Amino acid sequence: MILYHGSDVIIKEPKLIKQNRTLDFGYGFYTTANREQAVSFAQKVQARRKSLAAYVSVYEIPPVEELQQNLDVLVFSEADEMWLDFVSENRNGKYSGKRYDIIYGPVANDTIYRTFVAYEEGLYTKEETVKRLKVKKLYNQMTFTTRVALVYLKYTGSFGIESEG
Length: 165
Fold this sequence. Notes:
Blueprint lengths: L1 E6 L21 E3 L3 H15 L5 E6 L3 H7 L2 E3 L5 H11 L10 E5 L3 H11 L5 H9 L5 E5 L2 H4 L3 E7 L5
Parallel strand pairs: 4-5
Antiparallel strand pairs: 1-3, 2-6, 3-7, 5-6
């Protein structure tokens, strides 16, 4: 499986770095199988940090089924109620459940952020939120949350991104 990571630097050796914000799957090194999503994220990081460059680092990993033989992997096949609870708790810094080496599933990207906010503000029920999410095109993300898991990421190269604007 090919994975991408967008940033303002090339990352040949991924590391776990404490974030100052809460993310969908909590603390970890985030990747995606969607090249365009990684490009978009690299551009956002570049703009947020006011960097001069944006890059996408490319990695190979074994199939998820093989990873599950050696690591504790949580897989969300769709944006269902379990996924919604997990992401909401992580985004709010309240997740206290089991820790996994790798978490794989849909990403709550910018196109569904408004739906998430409406849910968190109590405007939508859980069922209504999941129903609304199912009609959106959701990309995926794979988050590596332990050093043991990072060993499976094999850097294969990178490419630069033209800045927006």
